[in-house]
Amino acid sequence: MTDEEKNRIREKILAETARLRQDVEGLKEVTKPVAPEDMDDITRMDAIVNKSVNDAALAAAKSRLAKLEYAAKRLDDPDFGYCVECGEPIPVPRMFAMPESTLCVDCAD
């Protein structure tokens, strides 16, 4: 992987982490409990379903954020961009699309 490619990946990581931090903050707001006295039964059921969906989205966003932050720390390591399972280089387009990747496409299957 060239220095230019690493810099492009670094920029992608920075942009994604900034976006995910905003997403996490927004999802924290919509996952706050709603007082039952403020709604009727149907609205309460909608709120429960929406909270469940938003809780899952929040967990996924936090997980990806943590993986991207870890990838940012490893970016200058000599083993960054190599599959942890087979040791082969992970294709640069995959690393650009998913900078948190630690497996090549074959091993990820």
Show the helix and strand layout:
Blueprint: H1 3-30, H2 41-74, H3 92-97, H4 105-108
Helix pairs in contact: 1-2
How would you characterize the overall build of this protein?
- With 109 residues, the protein is an all-alpha fold.
- The chain has a domain at 3-78.
- Helices cover 66% and strands 0% of the residues.
- The chain has helices at 3-30, 41-74, 92-97, 105-108.
- The protein starts with a helix and ends with a helix.
- The mean pLDDT is 90.
Distance between the termini: 23 Å
Which structural class fits the helix and strand makeup? mainly alpha
Residue share in β-strands: under 5%
**Mean pLDDT, nearest integer?**
90
SSE order, one letter for each helix or strand: HHHH
Count of DSSP strands: 0
Report the sheet with the most strands, covering strand number, pairing sense and barrel closure. Answer: none
Which term fits the overall shape? elongated
Features:
109 residues, mainly alpha, 66% helix, elongated
Describe what is shown at a glance.
The protein is mainly alpha-helical. 66% of the residues lie in helices and 0% in strands. It has a domain at 3-78.
